[in-house]
Amino acid sequence: MEQDLRVRLIGENEDDERMDSGDDEEIESDDAFDESDEEKYGLYFPSNDHDDEEGAVSTSEDEASPEALEELQDFVSKLDHADDKKRKSNDVSTQSASKKRRLMQERTEAGDEGEFGVSVRGSTALKLDDLLAPLASSSALTTLKKSIKVLTSTSTKTKTLLAPLPQRAQERLDREAAYEQTKEEVDKWSATMKRIKQAEHLSFPLQAQPEGRVSNLELAAKFKPSNELESAVDNLLKSAQLRDQDIAGTEALKMAHLSVEEVAARRAELRMMRELAFRADKKAKRIAKIKSKAYRRIRKKQRERLGGEEGDADVDVEDAEAQLKAEVERARERATLRHKTTGKWAKAMQGREELDVDQRQAIGEMLERGEKLRRRIQGEMSGDESEENESDDEEQDVETIKQSAFEELAMLNASDVLSADIKSKSVFNMKFMRDAAERQTREADAAADDFLKEMGGVEQESDDDACGDRTVTEGPSVQRVGGRVVYHPGTIPYTKPVDSHASETSSVTLQSADLVQDSPKSLNSISSPIISSPTQESNPWLVTSSSSGPSRKRSEVLVQKGSDALAKSTNKLKKRIAKGGEEKERIQDDAVLEIDADNVLTALEPASTPAVINTKHKLKGKGKGKEKPKNDSVVVRISPADADDSDGHSEVDEQERTLERKRKGGKGKGVTAFKQRELVSLAFAGDNVVQAFEDLKQSEIEADAPREVDTTLPGWGSWGGTGTKKFPPRPNLIKKIAGVEPSSRADYKKAHVIISEKRDKKAAKYLVKELPYPYTSHAQYARSMDIPVGAEWNTRVGFQRGTLPRVVKKMGTVIEPLVKAS
Amino acid sequence: MVKISVLQHAPSVHLPARPGDPTPTTRNLDPLMHPFARARERNRALNAAKMDKLFAKPFVGALEGHIDAVEVLCKKPGSLSAVASGSWDGGVILHNVSERKHIRRIQGAHKGKVSGLCFAQDDRLLSCGVDSKIKLWDASPQDDITEQRPLNEYPGKSAFNSIDHHRSDPLFATASNIVQIWDETKSAAISNLTFPTSTETITSVRFNLSETSVLGSIGSDRTFTLYDIRTGKAERRIVMQMSSNALAWSPTFPTNVLLASEDHNLYTFDVRQLKTPTHIYKGHVAAVMSCDWSPTGLEFVSGGWDRTVRIWKEGQGTRPEVYHTKRMQRVSSSIFTADARFVLTGSDDGNVRIWKAKASEKLGIITARERAAIEYRDTLKDKWKQDNEVGRIQRNRHLPKPVYQAAKLKRTMLDTRAVKEERRRKHTRAGESKPNAERKKVVITEQT
């Protein structure tokens, strides 16, 4: 094959051959391996160590060249040779001519000079160009000239042609060149291969043609009736003008006479209707889904009631019946004495929007009764009064009743004051009698207050300041009923809002307040924040200073005891310090704390606070406007010396002084700071954390330390009785528990930490010994393992993405090898 | 009338409304309802790994018909079911794998063993044998499946060892003591491609599948040679430590060629860089007799003298899947089917066996939910493969006892050799000899 190709090649296109060999390195890889170009490579010649021109010539020499070319070359070479000879002979002849006699010059030419006869004797030497001049018109001349450029060039070293390489070397060179070509060709796949290698997901076959889905529209557009049925249907449609294009036409016709606005309005209306229908449908569905029986019952009732109301409006006959029923209900209600709004009848009444006077009164009556009942249960009202009131109530208006009650109360108070003023030496002035009287009055007062509160008497309270002040600033109230002393926290019964009574057991509810007593309620709501505010804005230092934070041990001191507690805790601290002398330094080290100066500044002077808590309200009221915006903190170093001797705490004193100085700028008389010492002693009462920590660490170290356990069973393997020798435990029965050497612990020589050496066996199975391959850091791997892939922890799409396999093969699909895109 | 209470499941509750819609889920989306994610997933991964082993039943079936060892197998390009097998008795059978039937049965196709088979264009089959003949057969299904006459016969000068067809052109290459290129329409070889110094037999020749003019051959002189029919030359040759028995070009990585070597290993080479193999695949305990790439190019199968079939992942040089049966003898040929799901092997016992490429894969229709579950399990297995238990289960391979013992022995020998080498190195002058990378030991010379 090769031979054939070569022969054909050189015989046929001489020109091409010449051109190529002229610059034979310009074979482009792109078009190098076309089928038609295969022949080129038959001649492929690597000219690494030759010049181009030489290569070309040697190629042409090696191969069987056409006759013409050979002849020409022969001729040219001969010519050259002849030229030389002639020159020599010329010289010789001239020399001889000068020496010898002049002879008749030998005539060598056959004829005259002319176009076909060249005179040697002419002045100009014969050139190749002269010879070729007549051929100027032929196209082959230029190529010829090019090819013999080597021969005509003047440089001497290129005159001779090199001998061809030995065949083996030549072939090796050929192979190398061919390999380079193949490599280059194959290398075009590298981008593709890289992409495949790096792809996260591969779906085989890789070069599958994307199969387009045919849409219905497309099918419909293409549709042509093929069988009888189809054509019949088509005809029918056509005659009825129901085909797509016809329908469009008729619609256009109908809409033609309408204006744009009208069409828009129509469309909007339609949309509205559809929307409403949709919503109604949704709602109905949602309601139909509810399974609750209670709900169903309520619904049913509601429906009935609605129906009843309608009946009210329309017919009187049914109304009478309904009224009768309602009356029965009411009677039942009253009989059960459940005077609450939770009763059936009351609820029914509540549900109604419009109430006539009778009904309103009935409800009010019921509530009133409930109230009375409640009071009676509490035993707060004398029977005869209530009875009288009851009889009155029925006639009078509620407002007037209340008014009268308040007036009565005020009168009573006044008489009390009068009676206190009178000083006589009667039995009543004796101490025990006075005590008893006081107790009685207090009880009466309490009852009156209660009543006031119930009837919206807070109004009164806020009116006279003295009364309000007294009630509020009262300490933990001590009540004595009979022989038992009852302690109440100070202001709680007063701060409790009326709403809190609206429990299910009480008859006064929010509903009743709504219905009956509108004005007191609103008053209540105004007055309540004033009362409750002191508890809300309590000073954290004052409240919690004695308990001093949750982390400290054994520092719980009763707040109620006031300054006594402070003294106690100081004492405690003193005792402790006296006990542990070496602890002093440690405490001094530890107890560096920051105290917010703001809070200190708002605190009271201890001298003026026998009961700290009780004066809170006053303090707050006064210090409100004078709060310092500056939030300066003070570093306090507690030392045992501070606690026990008062002379050596110059530092603390100084701080106190500075604080005082600061305070004087904007402070009134009553508000002063705590003494730092007391504060700190409060804060660190019974604090011994360092020792505890060290003990803990020691115990930890001991628990982990290697140890030996004697597993000998007593009585086994040894003789008992007198005279038996006690053998040491057998070494094979001593179990050695490796543990962790204290010196090899992770927290060895680290005073402030305990690092556990315990190994969690259950957690160990989630650990890996070394970092798996693709990961470069521990965090990376941990992160990848943290995220679960299951459907429980991911969205549907997330799950699908997370579990998508790298290689997807379609079942029953032939996977063809990659094909080069042409 | 007895009232029958029926457990009713409204399809709308648990089935997608339209095909393609997601299946409605009834799970609680609150993450608090699904605690211990990590522990649960690990457990699932463990179960998945166990299930994988539990359901690993790779053997699908056997195609019978040969009365002697099966020497060669080839699949028809573009077909899932047509597979031809040639035997030592000179018979060629054309199988329909999906129906497990014979399409054609050619009793004495060649005198002596059939050494090569390949499909030509237009449903024709080329076979070559040690009787120095190449025969062209009609492979279309016919009534008389035992018709014996070849369509054409190409005489050769010496026994042929292998034959392969060009992917698109009507050309084919044969390997005897030289590599020859034939035209289907011509009775004589159109060219000879031989490395000049090559004198030994060429055992196998294969066309590259994507770069179709490139072909490679292996010879008994421990060489791999690269040819190109465009340049018409043997371009490069490498001499290796031991000779190869089979070669295969990767269908998706056209520069990669896989060699099944006599030294129990498989090697992949990049033809652009033949000095060292890109990967070494170690696992067989005897010579590897055959190899074939999966059409995906990400897996390959190899059959060995050790009576096992192994399925490897590209780039993972150890721990292949191992298939074996009690009766299967030395595996002389192995191919992947065109859908990359099955593996066919021909062995000395005269059977062609069908195996699943993935041992625990379920055959038959798989619903979307099942597929999701399978994919989830696979993901979990992959994610937790570093876990001790999961990894151990995944790595575990059941081997026949002789293979296991041989592997142990081989490992001991190799370890000893390594130790010896290390000691030798220690006792030479420092820096005199460096440890030689395993990959660099494979190729002795690269000849141009």
From TrEMBL, chain A:
Polar residues bias locations: 535-544
Amino acid composition bias (Acidic residues), ranges on this chain: 12-38, 50-73, 382-398
Main location: nucleus
Regions of compositional bias (Low complexity) in chain numbering: 519-534
UniProt keywords, alphabetically: Nucleus, Phosphoprotein
Superkingdom per UniProt: Eukaryota
Annotated Basic and acidic residues bias: 1-11, 77-90, 646-659
UniProt subcellular location: Nucleus, Nucleolus
Keyword Hydrolase appears in the UniProt entry: no
Region (Disordered): 1-119, 374-398, 457-483, 514-563, 612-669, 707-730
InterPro entries: SSU_processome_Utp14
Any one annotated GO CC term: small-subunit processome
This protein's record includes keyword Nucleus: yes
One BP annotation, GO: rRNA processing
PANTHER family with a match to the protein in the record: U3 SMALL NUCLEOLAR RNA-ASSOCIATED PROTEIN 14 (PTHR14150), U3 SMALL NUCLEOLAR RNA-ASSOCIATED PROTEIN 14 HOMOLOG A (PTHR14150:SF12)
Record's protein name: Small-subunit processome
Provenance organism: Suillus plorans
TrEMBL record, chain B:
Ranges for domain Sof1-like protein: 357-443
WD repeat spans: 107-147, 281-313, 324-365
CDD domains the record matches: WD40
PROSITE patterns linked to this entry: WD_REPEATS_2, WD_REPEATS_REGION
Keyword NAD in annotation: no
Main location: nucleus
Protein name according to UniProt: WD40 repeat-like protein
Organism taxonomic ancestry: Eukaryota, Fungi, Dikarya, Basidiomycota, Agaricomycotina
